[in-house]
Amino acid sequence: MTSPGPLVDRRAALKERHRTAIVDAADALIRERGSARFSVDELADRADVSRRTVFNHFSSLDDVVTTACARELAVVIDTFEAQVVATPLGDGTFGSLFDEVAATLRATDLTPAIAYLGTALEHVRDPEASGVRIVQDTFHRVSSQLSLGVTERHPGAERLDVELLVSTLLHGIALVAERWADETGASLDDASRARWAELLEHVLVTAKRGYPDDLPVRAPAGDRAR
User: Fold this and answer.
1) Is the pTM of this model over 0.90?
2) 61-225: same fold as 1-58?
3) For residues 21 and 14, is the Cβ–Cβ distance under 8 A?
4) Where in the chain are the domains?
5) CA atoms of 170 and 160, how far apart (whole Å)
6) Would the pLDDT of 217 be above 70?
7) Model confidence at 53, in pLDDT bands (50, 70, 90)?
8) CB under 8 Å to 51, separation ≥6 — which residues?
9) So what's the pLDDT on residue 103?
């Protein structure tokens, strides 16, 4: 009698291959067309699967698109984490803590992800249920992961202070991302990237005023006593 184990494994592997092929196909179509304007039949044809297989894995075309967006943004999260580790430690003041986070943001090229989201989510049929949710969820994940990485490097800092710093900067970046996309059409040429650098610096310079260079980063007295 044949063991069911290998059969189950093969089925799981096939399902994963189909799912990956569908998301890869959606990603390719988004990049080629500069939008998510394609049909389920076009997607299935590109992925070399049936229309039925698409709906076996995803509830709608929007679901495929937002899954592709989530995968794109996962790369940004990984990059943030790597940059946090690579950034030199400061001298333990709020100013140096700010500079560490700012260096991480400067070193992370966000423009491709912002441009991708703009093209992919522009024509999502149900933005409140999918596109907006995926951006919000990813923003929260980026903020949480970056805050955790910074806190681990500064065990004496209060987590709330770190979270406020990171959240403030990322909200500012979210605002200038919209401005950047409106001004440049989210193109990725030299002029567009230079404008992004200007807008990012505007956020960082403005926010830095609230983080004095000579104020030490410490946990509250109650936390230090424990």
Assistant:
1) no
2) no
3) no
4) 1-58, 61-225
5) 15
6) no
7) very high
8) 40, 41, 44
9) 87
Strand partners, 93: 216
Give the per-residue SS3 of 35-80: CCCCCHHHHHHHHCCCHHHHHHHCCCHHHHHHHHHHHHHHHHHHHH
Per residue in 140-154, pLDDT tens? 777 887 888 888 888
- Give pLDDT, residue 82: 82
Task: Name the β-bridge partners of 216.
Answer: 93
Q: Quick one: fold of 61-225?
A: Tetracycline Repressor; domain 2 (1.10.357)
Give CA–CA dist 91/100, Å, rounded.
Answer: 10
Query: What does DSSP assign to residue 93?
Result: B
Give the separation between CA 74 and CA 65, rounded to whole angstroms. Answer: 14
Length of the chain: 226
Arithmetic mean of pLDDT, 124-137: 58
What three-state secondary structure class fits 187?
A: coil
Considering the domain delimited by 1-58, tell me its CATH architecture: Orthogonal Bundle (1.10)
What is the pLDDT, as a whole number, of residue 136? 67
H helix runs in the chain, sequence order: 4-33, 40-47, 51-57, 61-86, 94-107, 111-121, 131-153, 159-184, 190-208, 221-225
Task: Supply φ then ψ for residue 93, to 5 degrees.
Answer: -100, 165
Residue 111 scores a pLDDT above 60: yes
Question: What is the residue whose two structure tokens read 């903020």?
Answer: 143
